[in-house]
Amino acid sequence: MRSYSDFYRRSVDDSEAFWAEQARLIDWQTPPEQILDASRPPFARWFVGGTTNLCHNAIDRHLDARGDQPALICVSTETGLERSYSFRELHAEVQRTAASLLALGVKRGDRVLIYMPMIAEATFAMLACARIGAVHCVVFGGFASGSLASRIEDAEPTVIVSADAGSRGGKVLAYKPLLDEAIRLSKHKPAAVLLADRGLAAMDLVAGRDHLMRDLATQHRDALVPCAWLESTEISYTIYTSGTTGKPKGVQRDTGGYAVALAASMPHIFDARAGETYFCTSDIGWVVGHSYIVYGPLIAGMATILYEGLPTQGLDRQPDGGIWWQLVEKYKVTVMFSAPTAVRVLKKQDPALLKKYDLSSLRALFLAGEPLDEPTGRWIGEGLGVPIIDNYWQTESGWPIITIANGVEKKPGKLGSPGVPMYGWRVKILDESTGEELTTPNEKGVVVIEGPTPPGFMQTIWRDDARFVNTYWKTVPGKMVYSTFDWGIRDADGYFFILGRTDDVINVAGHRLGTREIEEAISGHGNVAEVAVVGVADALKGQVAVAFVVPRNADGVDGAGALALEGQIMQRVAEQLGALARPARVHFVTGLPKTRSGKLLRRAIQAVCEGRDAGDLTTIDDPATLQRIRQLLRP
Ligand code: AMP
Questions:
Q1: Distance in angstroms (rounded) separating the CA atoms of residues 198 and 183
Q2: Measured between alpha carbons, how far is 597 from 595 in angstroms, rounded to an integer?
Q3: Which of 133, 360, 500, 588 is the most exposed place for a label (fewest CB within 10 A)?
C-alpha cells in the first residue's frame, strides 16, 4: 500500500504532473495542451485545450466492455417501481432525451433547469444536457415556488424539465402547480417545459409550452445524438447554494476538471471499482447527488442506485426500516454514501435490522454534509462492522476536501474528525482577524484553501465573477485565500475537526440554508416588522431554524393570536422556500439585539438559544433585548 502523505505531497508540490496522470483516467477527444492555467488568480483553469464530454465518459466509453451490465438502478418504495438500466439502455434513453431537448430548441451553452423527484428521467435529463453541451441547473425538488422562481430568473433556462409529482412517505407532492407558479413569478419564461408524467397527480398542460417526455421520447425512439466535444473549461452545470445574502449563488463547474476530479476520487477515496454497485442516498438536487449518484459512479463504470423513498418503515412496500440494507444485499453494494441525519433517523429503529441482511459486499459507509457526532458514528460503525468514513466538503468543492483516502492508504480515522486534507487541496487554518496561519495544534481558526484550487472546484459564481472573488477570496485580511466559512482545528497528527460555520448559513438535516433567505420570506408577512432567524442545535437534524419576530402590531399577539401568527409565518416559509426551511419555532419579541451600527447579533441570539455564553456584548445597543429572549426561552 502506498503512503498517503507521499501521495498528498506530490499532489501539491508537483501538482501539474500529478493531475496530468489523473487526467488519464478519463477519455479525451483532444488531450489537454496545458494542465493548469493559474495566470489569473483566484481562477484556476484545468486541462486547457483538451476536449471531452461527461456523458461520453459516463456511458459511451463503457459500452464495449460492459454495455449489458447495470448502470442505473432505480428503486422507489413510494411507487413500487424497480427498474435497472444497462449502460446500453441508458445510452438509448439519454439519446432520446437529448434529441427531445434539441427538438425544443436547446443549444450548446443554453441552460436547462431540472426540477424533479428521484426518478430515472431526472438522470436521463442531466446526462442528455451533458451530451449536447447544455448547462444543467438542477433545483432540489423540495424547494417551493419562491426559491424556484429566483433560480429560474438567474439561470434563464431555455427549457425546464419537471414531473407531475414527487412522493414522500406516501404523500404525493404535486410539482406542476409549484412550477407553474414559479414561472409566473419569474421575469424569465422558458420556451418549453418537458414533463415526466408518473400518473401521480393530474397536470394542466400549457398549450405550445408544455410537452410530455414520453411523447417526445417516442418520436425520437431511435435517435442517435453524438456527444458534443466540449472545451475542458466549458461549463457543465450550475447548482444553487445558500450564502449569507438572500440571493442564492449559482456555483458553476467546468467539464474536464470535474470529470477528472470525480474519476480520481473513485479509486483513491472510495476504493471503488468498475462493475460494482455504488449506493448514495442523497438527492440529485444536491452536489453529492450530482457527483456520487450520477457522474462519479458511472464514470467509474459502476452501477448506481437511485432510491426514492424514506429509509425507515413507512408504506406497505416498506414492511420494515431495513430498506437500505435490503438494497445493499440485493445489488451487492460495495460503497455506500449517506448523511449523519439519515443515520440518526435509523438509530431510532430496532438495531437488529442492521443484522437482518447480508451486508458482506459492503466495504465502507461514507457520511457527509454535516458534522458526524461521535455516538452516531460509533453506533453505525458497530452495527455494520465496516469503516465509517466521514467526509467534509461543500457544494463549491464538488468532491471531498477532507476525509481518508481509503484507496491510497487505509489510515485509521478518528471519531469526530473527517480526516486529513485530500490530494490537491491546500487546507490551512488561519486566525480570523490577523490572517496568520495557525500552526500550533488544536488552535481554532477559519478553515481556508490556498489556490490554485484543484480540478472539480467551482469555476466561479454564474455570471458573477466579482461576487465569487469578493465573497470567497477576500475575507481574510491581507491574503487571497478561499474561505470555507467553517471554523476548524487541526490536531497534532494532522487530523482536522470542523466546528461549525463562521457565517449565517445553517445546516438542517444536511441541507444548507441561509438564514437571510428565511428572514426575507418571513419579513414579507404584513404583520412582521423585524425578524432574526438563527440555527439552533437539534439532536436529530443537527440544527433547526428558530425565528424571532417583532410584530408590526403587537395587539393580539399573545395566546391564540401568537399561535395563529406563528402558523401563518411557518406556512409562508414552507410555501416560498419549501418545508425544509420552515422554522421549528417562531418567538415574538419587542426588539432584537443589534450592534450600535444596526447589525443583527444573530450569533448572540443563537448562543442564548443553546444555553451558551453570548460572548462579547460590548457592541450591543440594547442589552435588554437579549435579556428578554433569555427570559422567553427559560423553561
Ligand atoms: P453544502 O454546500 O450544502 O454541502 O454544505 C457545506 C457545509 O456543510 C460545510 O461548509 C460545512 O459547514 C458542512 N459540512 C459538510 N460536510 C461536513 C462534515 N463532514 N463535517 C462537518 N461539517 C460538514
A1: 21
A2: 5
A3: 360
> 418: Cβ below 6 Å to ligand 1?
yes
- The CATH code that applies to domain 84-223 is 3.40.50.980
pTM of the model: 0.92
Q: How far apart are the first and last CA of the chain?
A: 56
* pLDDT tens readout for residues 540-565: 999 999 999 999 887 767 778 888 99
Give the Cβ contact number of residue 606 at 10 Å. 23
Give the distance from CA 476 to its chain's centroid. 25
Domain boundaries, the chain: 84-223, 426-501, 509-632
Whether 413 is in the pocket of ligand 1, judged by its Cβ within 6 Å, is no
CA–CA gap between residue 57 and residue 91 (Å, rounded): 11
404 CB within 6 A, ligand 1: no
pLDDT, one tens digit per residue, over 373-388 is 888 999 999 999 999 9
To the nearest 10°, the Cα dihedral for 61, 62, 64, 69?
A: -160
Distance 412 CA to ligand 1 centre (A): 21
The CATH code that applies to domain 509-632 is 3.30.300.30
pLDDT tens string 121-135: 999 999 999 999 999
Considering only CA atoms, which residue is closest to atom 23 of ligand 1?
A: 370
Torsion angle in degrees (nearest 10) through CA of 605, 610, 612, 613: 10
**Residue 208 corresponds to which cell in the numbers above?**
405550445
CB of 397 sitting under 6 A from ligand 1: no
How many other C-beta atoms are found inside a 10 Å radius of the C-beta of residue 566?
18
How far, in Å, CA of 186 to CA of 198, rounded? 26
Where in 422-504 does DSSP place strands (E)?
426-430, 445-450, 460-461, 482-490, 496-501
Q: Which three cell numbers stand for residue 494?
A: 494532522
CATH assignment, 426-501: 2.30.38.10
In angstroms, what is the span from residue 256 Cα to ligand 1's centroid? 25
* Residue 400 and residue 291 in contact, taking contact as beta carbons nearer than 8 Å: no
C-alpha angle with apex 288: 449 to 90, nearest 5 degrees? 135
Beta strand pairing call for 43-48 and 34-40: antiparallel
CA distance 108 to 134: 5
